């Protein structure tokens, strides 16, 4: 099984603390060492207007273990600021260990990048991909992503509001989940969607900020020193990353959408 | 004006030497400091069969100058092995300095990634993008790429042989070049296409290998120490990168395709 990590914020924030603990699960505290990847949406250097989506994307994928990869080392040290982050460490189930099988996957639709990562295993999922999204690699996950993109492209003529997209995604999820475990993160730079069929947890950090202690590494951070009272950050992960905070577990079959660092109802 | 760098090889090769000189042009020996990017196709870790395309892709884009960017520093030090590389340093003409305007651009078609970078400036190029490739950023370059992808998707039902794609691209280039300067590099992991309307040069390095001296940095390398007699590497760049080798200039309007480290006739 793979592991997912997502972050959604109301102001660009770096993920070095969470990623540091998460990357330990790739070969040190756990056995997910068949590759990893992380994607950061990024606005304009002089600030994207708050209500606008972030269109730029940095994608780092690697078929080495995140605990030893030189690229992961860069990510741990280089505080990339982003409002929407999706990361994944891989334990291969379908598809060999190869770069094209590393999540997150990216496609363009309606002039936006869409980023997707999956944890789980879909059996006998061979959808009819009759449109223009086709997998490059061999995973059930990329096939599922191409099918989701095809179906949302069919359901909407152009980019719909977040609420409408959420409704469409809620309709699509059961078709995937009936083939097996389907925990996933998806973002288009405007919102972050998370679906759990087994394990997914989230936490919202906001004022008053406290100190958090990583579970997988002897590292703590006092967020009060690095934030303003207006900041709000949601972190979503397969398993809680910290030992002294209250994480909320997703229900089975639940899809949540995060905007500005909190889940929408 | 931007600068292009491409590499096409018959065996996976690292580009650290050429990139090192090239990155100096972003702010040190020249003024192209409005962002940069590099894309590496990569085969399977246990070796992709020679005649097969490389499907995996590592893409690094950054809106900082390549001469100072921490990500560029990583690329200079981390010898990523690839048979198809496209790099670009940007001097903004159309579109602000932002991540989504940094080349290379990537799209998927027929289950393959396609990578594109452009040097030049197209005026009044507003093609009818009626298909499913749309620009995320604001550049004439990404617009041109989307149009090329649309047209090759219309011209072929599935992935054609390299020679057929070359013929299609030769037909498309004049439509772009009549709007202004259009020097470009394009790859799908099977071949690398290069088109020049003004400046583009290439060199083929093969046995017997010699020592090359960079133009933009006090650095020389004896390729004989790092190669086998069977290796062959083509490097394509806006301007020659070395002072003691014979580079071939492209003619105006010329499109060449490189496979296995050499141009096809």
Count of individual helical segments of chain A: 4
Main sheet makeup of chain A:
7 strands, antiparallel
Radius of gyration of chain A: 17 Å
Give the oligomeric state of the chains in this entry, treating copies of one chain as homo and distinct chains as hetero. homodimer
Largest interface, C-beta within 8 A: A-B, 39 and 39 residues
Poorly predicted tracts of residues of chain A: none
What CATH first level of the domain at 3-118 and 183-230 and 237-246 in chain A would be assigned?
Alpha Beta
Distance between the termini of chain A: 29 Å
The rough form of chain A would be described as globular
CATH level-3 fold name of the domain at 3-118 and 183-230 and 237-246 in chain A: Glutamine Phosphoribosylpyrophosphate, subunit 1, domain 1
Output mean pLDDT of chain A: 92
The ordered H/E elements of chain A are EHEEHEEEHHEEEEEEEEE
Helix percentage range of chain A: 10-25%
Strand order of the largest sheet of chain A: 3-2-4-1-12-9-13
CATH superfamily of the domain at 3-118 and 183-230 and 237-246 in chain A: Aminohydrolase, N-terminal nucleophile (Ntn) domain
For the record, the CATH architecture of the domain at 3-118 and 183-230 and 237-246 in chain A stands as: 4-Layer Sandwich
Please state roughly what percent of the residues of chain A sit in beta strands, choosing from under 5%, 5-15%, 15-25%, 25-35%, 35-45% or over 45%.
25-35%
Query: What is the tally of beta strands of chain A?
Result: 15
Structural class of chain A: alpha+beta
